[in-house]
Amino acid sequence: MRLLIFGPPGVGKGTQAKLLSEEFGIPHISTGDTLRKAVSEGTELGKQAKAIMDSGRLVPDGIMIGIAREVLTAPATARGFILDGFPRTIAQAEALNEMFDQLGFTDVRVVVLEVNDDEIVRRLSSRYVCSTDGKIYNALIDKVTLSTPCPQCGGKLIQRDDDKESTIRERLRVYHSQTAPIIRYYSERGATIKVDGGRSVEEVNRQIRQQLGTVNA
Ligand code: AMP
User: Fold this and answer.
1) Which of 9, 90, 102, 144 is most buried, judged by most C-beta within 10 A?
2) 41 in a domain, yes or no?
3) What CATH number did the domain enclosing 39 receive?
């Protein structure tokens, strides 16, 4: 199974990709996670990416296409993958098509999670992440604060630098102007699976698998 998962920041792509990755036994590749790891390790890539990410803008295509090429030609993704956060621009989508042609990947499915902007701002500005195990919490639903230890491992909860409201608005603007056209591009070329991302995690997962044909209605 080869999947691309799209949707605005905070719609739950990462959560759904992780579930699907476990269910199908294929790796979840998040370009945002790759960049955050580079930032926390202080690598050259991380140094270049940090300020761009904090402002809500996109890291240059050349860098991102290089990362995607490295991941997709690695043995770990030979049998399948879920790509989350890439492509985000038409140039990235075109480069990805070329990679798929070269690698002979013809069975790629596209999942789109949809939710409105106000809901995204509400969700992201109350999203906290455990700095130890990476588990994501919602302050409103999980009743945690930045001084509550991670309910799972006791680690420190933090707010991502790009989950501040002004940055969220910029990330949404970038999403609508640069990434939404790619979804139209894939929709015009074949089966794009669209799911209401406003539903519960379990329901969204069920609907994705139903539309992929891996679960009965
Ligand atoms: P995400 O976790 O997918 O929301 O990504 C966080 C940030 O990483 C984005 O706001 C961008 O600054 C950067 N980023 C991740 N993936 C890409 C990409 N494919 N192209 C450009 N920038 C990216």
Assistant:
1) 9
2) yes
3) 3.40.50.300
Nearest to 31 by CA among 42, 23, 39: 39
Report the nearest atom of ligand 1 relative to the CA of 87.
Answer: 19
Q: Could you give the CA distance from residue 106 to residue 125 in angstroms, rounded to a whole number?
A: 38
Residue 215 scores a pLDDT above 80: no
Ligand 1: residues within 6 Å at CB? 9, 31-32, 35, 52-53, 56-59, 64, 85-86, 88, 92, 162, 171
Write out the catalytic residue numbers.
13, 88, 127, 160, 171
User: pLDDT digit string (tens) for 194-208?
Assistant: 999 999 999 999 999
CB 53 within 8 A of CB 59: yes
Which of 5, 6, 33, 59 should be mutated for ligand 1, with most atoms under 8 A from CB? 59
pTM given for the model: 0.87
Q: Is residue 182 part of a domain?
A: no
100: containing domain: 2-115+194-212
Residue 120 lies inside a defined structural domain of this protein: no
Range 159-175 average pLDDT: 92
Number of domains in the chain: 1
Ligand 1 atom closest to Cα of 33?
A: 2
Query: Tens digits of per-residue pLDDT, 85-144?
Result: 999 999 999 999 999 999 999 889 999 999 999 999 998 999 999 999 999 899 988 999
Cα angle 184, 9, 173; round to 5:
65
